[in-house]
Amino acid sequence: MQRILLPTDFSENSWNAIQYAFAFFEGCSLDFHILHVGFSGSVEATEDLHLQGIAIPGIITKGIQSKFDRLLKKIKKTYPNHTHNIYTHYEANLFIESVRKIIKNESIDMIIMGTKGASHIKGVTLGSHAGSVITRVKCPTFVIPENAAYENPESIAFPTDFNMIYKDRVLQTLKQISNYHDSSIKVLRVAVREGTLENEQLKNKDFLSDALYEIPHSFHWIQNPELEKGLQTFIDLMEIKIIAMVGKNLNFFQRLLFKPMIAKISYHTKIPFLVLHE
User: Fold this and answer.
1) Is 11 found in the same domain as 137?
2) Could you tell me if 130 and 17 lie in one domain?
3) Of 44, 56, 189, 244, which has the fewest beta carbons less than 10 angstroms from its beta carbon?
4) C-alpha dist (Å) from residue 266 to 113, 145, 193, 273
5) C-alpha 49: how far from its chain's center?
6) Does residue 150 fall inside a structural domain?
7) What digits encode the pLDDT tens for the residues 176-200?
8) What is the distance between the alpha carbons of residues 269 and 7, in angstroms, rounded to a whole number?
């Protein structure tokens, strides 16, 4: 893990994600690429644009450099002893296309970005830009909710239904993140009803256990007809600080991240999500 992309709109929300990145990688010397995206052109500001991850046009040229300068001064003041290399990028383009361009040109290893949580658009809980990135950009992404504060991640939850074999890139990223703070991986199955694993699920579980053999890990099972409540209970009991998931498992993934509207569900506003891609 050497090159980190930090998209920013210069808001407190994106600053919170930058703070999380500096705290998580404290003591390391990485390349941080800070990206601000504007949109040059005329588009109609409809709900669908948010869901497609398009940056709505505004003042995109005047004052951008001064905003970067203020941000860099803020970073220097807050983290005077950091040893990271920091690069700034400005793209006047569609948001997703800009992110993909920087990932390719700068060989980005991971994205760390904030989300405001509820966007109030069609009931979507995860912010529109973050939602677009994790579903449309095949790069490991840390999503930092606006109310998340960095805490040493002693435990990382890895919810799974054991219905897929995880490829090497997914497992390597998970192990890398675990190694930074000697975190324990808590593999969690939330079952809607009682029942044993099918043969294929058992094979996938054994494969995962073998793949994580050098990392502290354990397997857990919770029965709850409501997946979100089961995950919330587990987070509270095990003091989980990060939730890691694989973006490919879309139905499972969307249910946990995008629409946890059930009462007393708060993990999506406080716990960072690590979204893994193959």
Assistant:
1) yes
2) yes
3) 44
4) 19, 11, 23, 13
5) 21
6) no
7) 999 999 999 999 987 777 778 889 9
8) 19
Which single residue is written with the structure tokens 């930092």?
144
Pairwise CA distance, residues 38 & 90, whole Å? 8
Q: What is the pLDDT of residues 63-100, one digit of tens each?
A: 888 999 999 999 999 999 999 999 999 988 888 999 99
**Phi–psi pair at 218, nearest 5 degrees:** -150, 160
Cross-strand partners of 87: 33
3-state helix/strand/coil string of the chain? CCEEEEECCCCHHHHHHHHHHHHHCCCCCCEEEEEEEECCCCCCCCHHHHHCCCCCCCCCCCCHHHHHHHHHHHHHHHCCCCCCEEEEEEEECCHHHHHHHHHHHHCCCEEEEEECCCCCCCCCCCCHHHHHHHHHCCCCEEEEECCCCCCCCCEEEEECCCCCCCCHHHHHHHHHHHHHCCCEEEEEEEECCCCCCCHHHHHHHHHHHHHCCCCCEEEEEEECCCHHHHHHHHHHHHCCCEEEEECCCHHHHHHHHCCCCCCCCCHHHHCCEEEECC
The verdict on 134 and 165 lying in the same domain is: no
CB atoms within 10 A of CB 263: 5
Q: What is the pTM of this model?
A: 0.84
**170 is a domain residue:** yes
Q: How far is CA 217 from CA 132, 238, 277, in A?
A: 31, 13, 20
User: 197, exposed or middle or buried, with CB in 10 Å at 0-12, 13-18, 19+?
Assistant: middle
Q: Are 140 and 246 in contact (CB under 8 A)?
A: no
In a shared domain, residues 7 and 126: yes
- The CA distances from residue 62 to 58, 65, 278, in Å, are 10, 8, 39
